[in-house]
Amino acid sequence: MTRIMGYCDRWSVRPGDTVNFMVSCIGAESYAAEIVRLKQPEAGPLATPFEPEPVASDVNGRYAGREQALPIGSLAVVTGHPCLERLEAATLVAYVMPTTPSKGRQALFGNWCEASRTGFGLELDEQGSLVLRLGAGRGTEVTLATGEPMRAWRWYRVAGTFDSQSGRMAIWQEPVSRHGFDLDRPIARSAERGCPSTRSMNPLTFAAWQNGETAGPSAWGGLQFAQHFNGRIDRPRIVEGALDHAGIAELMGETGPAAIEHELVAAWDFSLDIGGEAIIDTGPNRLHGTIVNLPTRAVHGHNWTGCINDWTQAPEQYGAIHFHDDDIVDACWTVDFSFEVTSAQRSGVYAAKLTAGDFVFWVPFFVSPPKGEARSKVAFIASTATYTVYLNNKGRFLSSATEVYQGRVTVMDEIDSLLFEYPAMGLSTYDRHSDGTGVAYASRHRPVHNFRPTGRHWNFNLDLCIIDWLEHLGGDYDVITEEQLHEEGMGLLAPYNVVITGSHPEYDSLDMLDAFQAYLRRGGRLMYMGGNGFYWRIAHHPTRDGVIEVRRAEGGVRAWDALPGEYHHSFTGEYGGLWRRNSRAPQKLVGVGFISQGFDKCSYYRRTDAAADPRAAWMFDGIEDELIGDFGILQGGAAGLEIDAVDARLGTPPHALVVAQSENHSNTYEVVAEEVLIPHGATDAIINPEIHADITFFETPNGGAVWSTGSIAFAGSLGWNGFDNNVARLTTNVLRRFAAEEPLPWPGRPEAGA
Amino acid sequence: MYSFDKSRLDLAREFKANPFGEHRPDLQYLLNLMRRPDPKRPHFVLMPRQWGESWTLAVMEPGASPPRPTNLVFTDAGEAEWHVFKLRWAELAGEELPFD
Question: Among the listed ranges A312-326, A354-368, B32-46, which one has the minimum average pLDDT value?
Fold first, then answer.
């Protein structure tokens, strides 16, 4: 079976920038690469034919195929150190909370090397019992196990001691329970087994064992890793010499200040640098290390009281790291070819088309004008934040649960199938880790199944319908991206008279919202071309571009919910969740906000009396129809999938005009969870009058304005009947007015110069 | 409270006539029953052959394995929904629907 997949290091580039492409090719000796400009999606017989525009480039051609592995699974690592090498007797102790204790052998911490069978370490065996493992090479290993499985989601203090001279080993597996009742009991075991000398310069690892060198991609140090742990580790410490039980309690600070500091080798405090990637050793040797593949931080430690819910206020209660065997932040593949963007490339949406046999894979990227320059008065802002958090959305294929809310059998093509053929591609923030916890981090530095011009019409693919419309109008537009907006702020938008969003700009950082707000206050015009926009708060990684955090806190339509007390982003400390819970409801910015979703059938809008208001009548020039968008490639209508409505309570400006409102949605359209505080029966669109999409218009100070469609499906109707339809006409009327220099008059005030 | 009743052939006919969009509560109950997730049972997906034009019915076995295509190809999405409905009806009722 032939397969090809790849990714690039940058999504947002400008003339002079270079994009590096990483490719894995399976089952074929070579593959073809071609740079193309994307002007529309592949959207079937009722849409514009899919015709990517070839781009002349030296990189176009054939390349030797080779498979590149995906180094999945998180851990933390400290470079080998003489103070660890010389340990002939030691005590290892930590608090741990396994979340899948019976999944198989799992490393806790130590410098054990699975390949060379050297070093020491604490781990869980196949049943979830604590094990101390020592070895000086194959055939010399000794182990000591408690023989009692730990329970999932319970904290334990675990400790192991060994002494090579006496040959004595001991372990303790002790439940740490603040509340609740459980039959679990403390266990201690000891034995004299002739401990081998464990002298080794192996790196010390947490939550995985190193498994020797690899010639392929490595997440750290050219090594491969195995026995990944699912769960939390808190306050790991190493002392020279074998402590007794009282000494262990003293070491962990449970019986007053430790008097054994002179024997301390290392004491890691994971509550330090929570927003970064370092692990800090507060001990005398400063054995600082790094996390690998972004395990989750800003999570409860063993001592969380429940009284503090913000880790920035009590970091000592958030001293744990939650590791997962399916974390991946960077595939670390070798570069196959590089494309240099020249000034000859117009701003637009581009992709590398990779072909091996009959299998085609796309790696899109966006070319913007040089920084500070605009080549048009119109900018399309690609929803790169939203694209990123959706990458590798595997959960929607995992069961028939998706059918329940979609009202139809799930469609899945052979590129979607890669998620199951190569599960190490990782997950999206719409998924749960293998231990059931929600995925809080998203990264674009890996191959992904759902960022392409083919397949399901959602996000990037559907946004190409907006590009298709702009191309139909003559192609006078620039492309900018949300990741540029986060980095550069309002200055990115300032050169443009009008900025057009994608169909589903759902995720925003504070900097992004502030930039939109400032742009509108200065007279900018925003066409919000979608539904469920500006909904979730996100945080960007402090140093890695293309890595985003989402904490699905209280409220909202969400695939998982963050654990209580874990609502604050690790990257920034900001409270996560819905923007409406952060005083920035989308209605304040664009007049409308998420009200309902359904995926079985799309509907239409009906023109309202407000459409005749002189402030808005111009947008209906040439349109006689009462029904708007009763057609489209997305389930037959322009109003649907995820839809937004005005709500004065949440900040819709009082002068906003709803010029068309959708109706006739099915009973799979349920009101969003955050609107149902007390359960009631009136939740679906048949019986709930609040469920509708509102095409909304309002002016902003200094000649600006906002026009919102309030529907993801809207973009799928633009190209209907060769763009000869009332959705395209209405939208084009708005674009032309918004792109014009003439200010939109602030209502109630005479037009400037009048 | 609704429950599955294999004598309610009217619900099957109603679904066949209108597989997408609004359904009456008793039919919606039946669909929710048929679509309820069960990690021990396989579920179905449609694999497009030509986007928006034809689909192959495929089965996802428990355990997150790749989809296994069947030899059933549909050129109408509603026909595909109806076929899956019939399979699920047979599983619930212990017998096939007496009509196609």
Answer: B32-46
- Taking the C-alpha atoms of residue B34 and residue A532, their distance in angstroms, rounded to an integer, is 29
- Beta bridge pairs of residue A188: A172
CA atoms within a 13 Å half-sphere pointing along the CA-CB vector of A563: 18
- CA contacts within 13 A on the Cβ side of A422: 24
Within-domain flag for A329: no
In a shared domain, residues A307 and A348:
no
Q: Which of A411, A414, A600 would you mutate first to test chain B, the one with the most B CBs within 10 A?
A: A411
User: Could you give the number of structural domains in chain A?
Assistant: 3
pLDDT digits (tens, 9 = 90+) for A420-465: 999 999 999 999 999 999 999 999 999 999 999 999 999 999 999 9
pLDDT of B64 reads 83
Q: Which residue has the tokens 């997950």?
A: A427
Q: Do B44 and A454 touch (CB under 8 A)?
A: no
Q: Is B36 on the interface with A (CB under 8 A)?
A: yes
Domain with A18 in it: 3-67+340-364
Of A399, A413, A666, the CB nearest to B22: A666
**Chain B partners of A413 at a C-beta cutoff of 8 Å?**
47-48
Q: Which residues of A touch B50 (CB under 8 A)?
A: 44
pLDDT digits (tens, 9 = 90+) for A169-180: 999 999 997 777
B43 has a chain A CB within 8 A of its CB: yes
pLDDT band at A258 (very low <50, low <70, confident <90, very high): low
Check whether residue A127 and residue A151 sit in a common domain.
yes
Question: pLDDT exceeding 70 applies to what percent of chain A?
Answer: 98
Cα–Cα distance between B39 and A691 in angstroms, integer? 33
CB contact under 8 A, A404 and B43: no
**Domain shared by A11 and A137, yes or no:** no
Q: Cα A674–A411–A36 angle (5° rounding)?
A: 100
CB contact under 8 A, B37 and A400: yes
Q: What is the ipTM of this complex?
A: 0.97
Task: Give the mean pLDDT of A158-164.
Answer: 96
Residues A28, A153: one domain? no
Same structural domain for residues A349 and A311?
Answer: no
In a shared domain, residues A42 and A90:
no
Question: CA-to-CA distance for A752 and A742, rounded, in angstroms?
Answer: 10
Q: Give me Rg for the CA atoms of chain A.
A: 28
Across residues A392-418, what is the average pLDDT?
A: 93
The answer to whether the CB atoms of A399 and B81 lie below 8 A apart is no
Distance separating alpha carbons of residues A23 and A6, to the nearest angstrom:
4
Q: Between chain A and chain B, how many beta carbons pairs sit less than 8 Å apart?
A: 87
pLDDT tens sequence across A586-617: 999 999 999 999 999 999 999 999 999 999 99
Q: How does the average pLDDT of chain A come out, rounded?
A: 95
How many other C-beta atoms are found inside a 10 Å radius of the C-beta of residue A58?
10
Chain B residues inside the 8 Å CB shell of A633: 52
CATH of the domain at A306: 2.60.120.200
